[in-house]
């Protein structure tokens, strides 16, 4: 009994301490400052695509609508063997909205990471934006990201902040909104220490000289990009003023598939870059990356072991108490069905992380997108 109690306490402390560090960090007042760029140099916008016929024209039109000189924007669409008319619609949109652009159709489908490598490699400008086909930038998003990037030569990349858009309320959208509410503040705190690699892929502004090709089959493209840039001696920052919008699905199965893929690829990128745990990379190598490793790999296992052990320990005292642990767990898990809250979102996040520990070994660098809708 004593050994079970000690184990229950220890497994409880691991996720508790890990997330308490972040909670205390994000409760501190933010000293965020918007950096307006002194110049608007030519930029290349790289857009990996696969069956984006529903959104690609809207994506290109948005580049025309933002507060950035259209003549200083060149778009490169890297198409991953779409089976719809994405390529045709993209070429028409370039002409319709007078955007300089080109479409590169890959010889075979190799995934987003390979598309990013190809697109950034083809860019002829010093600054490159990578984005997705189904998002919409706020008018000042690119300027705010560029301003932050230009504020320090040691900054190699800056990512923007996602504002999720739900077409109808559901359990999945409640969970995602609660999660996103704190995600950005966590990444901003890591940026203040040194760097974050939990990037939002739909808006990344980078210095081309800081970029190195990312592994095509290892990890998420956005996290892999950030980790390579940090390895090259630069910082990677989260900029909350560079906002963009993305439709989030209300379908539970689609969200499950999306969450598992993202979690698995983020875990894979983390494992693949554990060599960055070193004083050479400052506070990122000594603190941020080790803390994220605990969060992604150790905390979810510890959390569910703690729930099981507490149900056993309390059940040995009184059967109703042991049963009560599972009742409380279930109520907390499902509470997001009625109202967005961090407890439900946290539990679901731990479930996704735990399942994706197995899922990441299945190879998910080529994937089927969720439903595409314009914001």
Can you put this structure into words, describing what you see?
This protein has 375 residues and is α/β, with parallel strands linked by helices. It has one domain. The protein is built from eleven helices and eight strands. The longest helix is centred in the C-terminal third of the chain and has 36 residues. The relative contact order is 0.15.
Spell out the key features of this protein.
375 residues; alpha/beta; eight-stranded mixed beta sheet; 11 helices; Glyco_trans_2-like; transferase; membrane
Kindly summarize this structure in a few lines.
By secondary structure, this protein is an alpha/beta fold.
Topology of helices and strands:
Layout (H helix, E strand, L loop, with lengths): L1 H26 L15 E7 L6 H10 L7 E7 L6 H11 L3 E6 L6 H11 L4 E4 L4 E3 L3 H10 L4 E12 L4 H23 L10 E4 L13 H11 L3 E14 L3 H21 L9 H36 L1 H16 L7 H18 L16
Parallel strand pairs: 1-2, 1-4, 2-3, 6-8
Antiparallel strand pairs: 4-7, 5-8, 6-7
Helix pairs in contact: 1-6, 1-9, 2-3, 6-11, 7-8, 8-9, 8-11, 9-10, 9-11
